[in-house]
Structure prediction request, 404 residues.
Amino acid sequence: MAVKLSFLAMLLCLLLASTPKAHASVFDVTSATYGAKPGSDVSTALAKAWSDACASPSASKVVIPSGTYKLKEATFRGPCKAPIEMQVQGTLQAPADAGQLTRLDTWVGFQYIDMLTLSGGGTFDGQGALSWNQNDCHKNKNCKPPPVNLRFEFLTNSKVQDITSLNSKFFHIHVFRCNHTTFQQLTITAPDESRNTDGIHIGASTGINITHSKIGTGDDCISIGDDSHKITVTGVTCGPGHGISIGSLGKYKEEKDVTGIIVKNCTLTNTENGVRIKTFPDSPSPSSASGIHYEDIIMVNVSNPILIDQLYCPYTKCEQKPPSKVKINNVSFKNIKGSSFTPLAVKLVCTTGKPCENVELTDIDLTYGGDKGPLTSVCSNVKPAITGVTKALGCATSSLAPLP
Prediction:
């Protein structure tokens, strides 16, 4: 009897081994079922393909083949029954006029999905030039922003890789309430003069990883807002743009803390700023930013390579009192090398009410080859710990009083 059971068990194993493995069900928008064609509006076909794929009990894949397709707008919503991938091989093109969109803050959105993969090597073309000329958010704090190219909300255990975001009308990628999500091998592109085209903005999210991506925009390459935790940025090239920024923080009431930010092995070229933390001077509620670490950064012709700015004001006028209520603590700048476009290569301007604490400058090697004065640094309301830094970059001008 034991021999028979052993033989049956072995036979069952052989049968299982020879059974073909299940592959993800494919939902191609150009198939006869959905009928999309290059050059036409793919909105309806893509919505139907997503709905069918999301309802699939097994892993599924929505495919947009090579070619250029019009896409008026789209929101892909879960939860889905199984892991789902959208593979964009072609180019999806937004309306040039943002007024044609129903959801005025978003062109393409993904919401409430676990185990999403967005991939394929394709392009999301926001056609943003018209919106850049009309956008006054750089000077009007009550403006109505144009649509974001790609908005990710309430995602978990997801991955966005090998796609291009081109010429977004506003932010390229906006990440909100997402957990354990990776963005890798992205190309994000808009001209230097495009306004408010942040590459990736993160808010209220935990466990976000951005890696091996090329970002060049008219604003921050990466910006990290309040209630963000365990954010890692590695292997990113930035430029043109305004740098890699924490903030701006302290603009709204009851903002939550920022903790655990690592920016490492990045290169910034011809950017307005390098690595910076920015807070408004008149923040309405207390909060903090702590555990922020920049390491192994290369600067090439960067205007403000190392910057803490607690007097940040992008508008014509800001109230300077009361001072910023954002407490900055446990921040390190390590092994930062390269060239500064201006003689002021290190600027740490902290708030009078809550001076920055536990700030470290280690192995900073920046040069300036211009004719606007000697290489220098300045600090206010902070006493950084300094190791391996020349006197010029070591905050020789340092005080616990406001800078003039």
In short: The two ends are 93 Å apart (CA to CA). The chain has three helices and 29 strands. The CA atoms of residues 51 and 76 lie 8 Å apart.
